[in-house]
Amino acid sequence: MSKTAARTQPKRAANTKPAVTKPAAAPDAVRPGRGRPASAQLAAKPAARRPTKPTAKHSDAAPAPVELAGSIALRSGSRTWGNQKRMALLEAIGEAGSITAAAKRIGLSYKAAWDAVDAMNNLAGEPLVLRSTGGQRGGGAQLTARAVELLQVYQALNAEHQRFLAALAQAGRDPTHHLKLIQQMMIQTSARNKLAATVSRVVQGAVNDEVVLDLGAGQEITAIITRESARNLGLAPGKQALAFIKASSVMVGLPDSDGARLKLSARNQLPGHVSEVVAGAVNCEVRIELPQERSLAAIITMESAKALKLKKGTAVLAVFKASSVLLGVMD
């Protein structure tokens, strides 16, 4: 029992002698260097009361001041893809020449850094980070000319933005009463795969609409959503949209020798090659490189990965149903 429990236990009668039974010792209850379990020690020798130090009361303490803070993000058309953390990652990659080293420099995990690079390449419309394999250091990464230019622009704009925030704070404008609403609006999706695309056509149905999205490089994906959702999103040919696909919804298949599509009911089959297989106890994550430096992640069982003999460089098809594609817009 804890000290608190010992103090709140009702008093026994004076002429009553309690019978002490020694409880069986559990492996995780034995203190280091002692033979008896912690519960038996407490029963044999009740903890003596110690004077407690008075604790400071915080009810009258002044709340921490709310500071005005913010950052800028880069957009390509209606696509928002660059923020302060990702710009810092780009800068570190340019200096270190390696995604792994850059991640360590800015305090990101290896996986988070790779996911951020994939997201930037997928959503920017063109590659920003080029990855290479082989060499004396086992490969590396370098920024494209477009990435260098964008990084310079971002740094200049961010400096001006910080000066603007400082001037705004001095003016006494306090937006704190809107913060809760803003936090609720800034909800991020848990879907691992995010692809920027352009709506090429919408086939209306009685209940559901079929939305065909152009990914570029001759690749298309199809999404099935309700007609009401398509209307609320304002989906029409030429509209920019984001496609979200959970990694657990992506199946991995092996194409025919001629690279033909598989005969499946699943509408979406994107050709690519395996860039990485992260093994787990039961499942594994398969990262699939697509054209234009895009990528998809799939979660499949280790048994399936072994049966397909998946390894780096294996040509595969990323397969997912049209009903597994969620759509979003940014305006």
Short description:
With 331 residues, the protein is of the alpha+beta class. 29% of the residues lie in helices and 26% in strands. The chain has two domains: 97 residues, Winged helix-like DNA-binding domain superfamily/Winged helix DNA-binding domain (Arc Repressor Mutant, subunit A); 136 residues, OB fold (Dihydrolipoamide Acetyltransferase, E2P) (Beta Barrel).
Features:
single chain; 331 residues; alpha+beta; Arc Repressor Mutant, subunit A; OB fold (Dihydrolipoamide Acetyltransferase, E2P); 5-stranded antiparallel sheet; 9 helices; 14 strands; disordered N terminus
Low-pLDDT parts are 1-48, 53-59, 179-187
Q: CATH homologous superfamily of the largest domain - what is it?
A: RNA polymerase II/Efflux pump adaptor protein, barrel-sandwich hybrid domain
Q: Mind telling me which CATH architecture of the largest domain this is?
A: Beta Barrel
Biggest sheet: strand arrangement: 7-6-5-8-14
The main β sheet shows up as: 5 strands, antiparallel
Q: What is the CATH domain class of the largest domain?
A: Mainly Beta
What do the pLDDT scores average to? 76
- Which shape, going by the Cα principal axes? globular
Question: How many DSSP helices?
Answer: 9
- Sheet-strand content, in percent, reads 25-35%
Number of domains: 2
Elements, N to C (H/E): HHEEHHHEEHHEEEHEEEEEHEE
- Number of DSSP E strands: 14
What name does the CATH topology of the largest domain carry? OB fold (Dihydrolipoamide Acetyltransferase, E2P)
- Classification by helices and strands: alpha+beta
Report the helical percentage.
25-40%
